[in-house]
Amino acid sequence: MELENIVANTVLLKAREGGGGKRKGRSKKWREILRFPHISQCDELRRSLEEDYGSLCEKQPIGRLLFRQFCETRPELLRCIRFLDAVADYELSPDEKRKEMGEKIIRRFLSQKSPGFLPGISQSHISQCAENLRKSPCKDLFSGCLRPLREYLSRAPFAAYLGSMYFDRFLQWKYLERQSVTKDTFRQYRILGKGGFGEVCACQVRATGKMYACKKLEKKRIKKRKGEAMALNEKRILEKVNSRFVVSLAYAYETKDALCLVLTIMNGGDLKFHIYNMGSPGFEDERVVFYAAEICCGLQHLHREGIAYRDLKPENILLDDDGHIRISDLGLAIEIPEGETVRGRVGTVGYMAPEVIGDERYAFSPDWWGLGCLVYEMVAGRSPFRARKERAGREEVERRVREEQEPYSDEFSEDARALCEMLLTKDPRQRLGCGADGAAEVKRHPFFRSINFKRLEAGVTKPSFVPDVRRGGAGRRRAGGMIGPPRLTALSGPAAPGRVLQGRAGHRAVLHGERRQPGPNRQRLLRQVCHRQRLHPLAERDDRDGVLQGPQHLRAERDPLPGPGLEAAARAAQAQPAAEALPAPPGRLRHRHHHALPAAARRELAPRRG
């Protein structure tokens, strides 16, 4: 079984890295799969499309690219494109460089003496831009100039684009996009986790080589648990989401036995793992501000679409390979019509807002409460209303949420404490983010003074922490298309006699150096898999007793690879006293996976005489 795991992990890692070669994970038949139809086959599609400039040339990535290429063929339109690019760079520039860049834009595009002058913009708009630049170079300085420019592009240039070969190519792409998606569209890889309605596995698009997570909802389980409405609600909400801060739906298809949602794959682990398993609990201020800002942007997008998330907690915030986060698992999300409210006791104990616990009506206020809980936990290394590993019942935690004030330690800066107090206000009418401005009100808080939200939303801001997904940054796949860390981690490398590992559940396992050696064929295969691919066998968790299970006798001979899981296990090993290893009597006190028990445990369990 352990050999199968090693091979499955190796295949997945190779696929994630592009598979090697020039195709970068694509099928040998990728050209045939992506072959464009003859333009005559797109006539019906042309008639069915709504000829709207905003939809075809701004919102859709392929349409935006092709319209840009069309404009680059005409000098008068090329100036418009370059102006739009310059304004986009201005909006993403740091505050100290904004005035200089604004002056360059005015001289190049808004001055009548310049060869790049744009005649479609009125003199009043130009004068207003120059005046605002002298006073304060704000991010939206050129918004007054962009409106007439877009109106100009949406008329004659857009009509000419519709009759060009660039729009024909757009129709061909849309034709391919409308082809049916089946299980044969993807390569399926190992199972990454299991949930209430099915399992999650890694998958790869044959035509492009792009990796995703495939969440398979088994039809029998859905019907047995009467979860049809929940499954369809999750799919419908995922279809509306298009944000770099929320896990998005790429494809959806069905098989005979399952409904399949193909989602963004996140390889960096969940926030709970990084809070509690990477050194001392909690994060430094810079990292807290960055994650809180990205979560705020994700909530803003959901609320703009009329979606209340209702389950904000560290387990549902996932990191990608670059260290950016996404909100995941929209199973409890709900669409709320504008101006209306809903009622429902849903969420996770310790993160539910007082109005949810009290079964009152609400709109988006529980999400801002959840953000306050997350910021508190990232700073303090514990949730605001229950200490870590504290055995407090549901009723007690809910009483604290309704009645008690959360404690604050010296770890909180003045701005962090002020933000948490405003987000964790018991009355939703007084809570930060619940006013008319919504997320904009939260973004203006001094806690986020170091964040340029334009740059953040464009993906330009670099995270301060990047998970090492190749060397153990995350391992356990959670249900819902999300990846998380393993609950127990084994030390890689040669096993030292008498070394003790401490698991989360409090169980210990002693690793011994003397073990049955694998045969020569198995040794050769393991060397090929582990050494050439730089991969170590992954430990598995046994849910019955929490003890490490894994191929400890099949060790790679190289030095252990660094990673958060290894660091956590090493710290646990140092914290435990060395145990004396005694040979276990045959068939009596032997662990079922042949790990000898510690001496203290053997003495406690040994039969007593007389």
UniProtKB/TrEMBL annotation:
Please give the InterPro entries that the UniProt record associates with this protein. Answer: GPCR_kinase, Kinase-like_dom_sf, Prot_kinase_dom, Protein_kinase_ATP_BS, RGS, RGS_sf, RGS_subdomain_2, Ser/Thr_kinase_AS
The highest taxon in the source lineage is Eukaryota
Question: Which residues lie in Basic and acidic residues bias regions?
Answer: 601-610
Q: Which residues form the RGS domain?
A: 59-171
Please report the stretch or stretches of sequence annotated as the Protein kinase domain: 186-448
Give GO terms: molecular function aspect only: ATP binding; G protein-coupled receptor kinase activity
Q: Compositional bias (Low complexity) at which positions?
A: 564-582
Q: Name one GO biological process term.
A: signal transduction
TM helices/strands, residue ranges = none
Q: Which SUPFAM superfamilies match?
A: Protein kinase-like (PK-like), Regulator of G-protein signaling, RGS
Q: Which residue ranges are recorded for the region named Disordered? A: 468-494, 554-610
Q: Is Kinase among this UniProt entry's keywords?
A: yes
The top EC class, named as a word, is transferase
Positions of ATP binding = 224
Q: Name one Pfam family in it.
A: RGS
* Keywords noted in UniProt: ATP-binding, Kinase, Nucleotide-binding, Phosphoprotein, Serine/threonine-protein kinase, Transferase
Query: What Enzyme Commission number does this protein have?
Result: 2.7.11.-
Task: Mention any one GO cellular component term assigned to this protein in its UniProt record.
Answer: cytoplasm
Q: Where is the active site?
A: 311
- Keyword Phosphoprotein found: yes
Task: Give the catalytic activity.
Answer: [G-protein-coupled receptor] + ATP = [G-protein-coupled receptor]-phosphate + ADP + H(+)
- PANTHER family from the UniProt entry: G PROTEIN-COUPLED RECEPTOR KINASE (PTHR24355:SF26), G PROTEIN-COUPLED RECEPTOR KINASE/RIBOSOMAL PROTEIN S6 KINASE (PTHR24355)
What family does this belong to? Answer: Belongs to the protein kinase superfamily. AGC Ser/Thr protein kinase family. GPRK subfamily.
Which protein are we looking at?
G protein-coupled receptor kinase
Q: Which organism is it from?
A: Dromaius novaehollandiae
| Lineage, top ranks | Eukaryota, Metazoa, Chordata, Craniata, Vertebrata
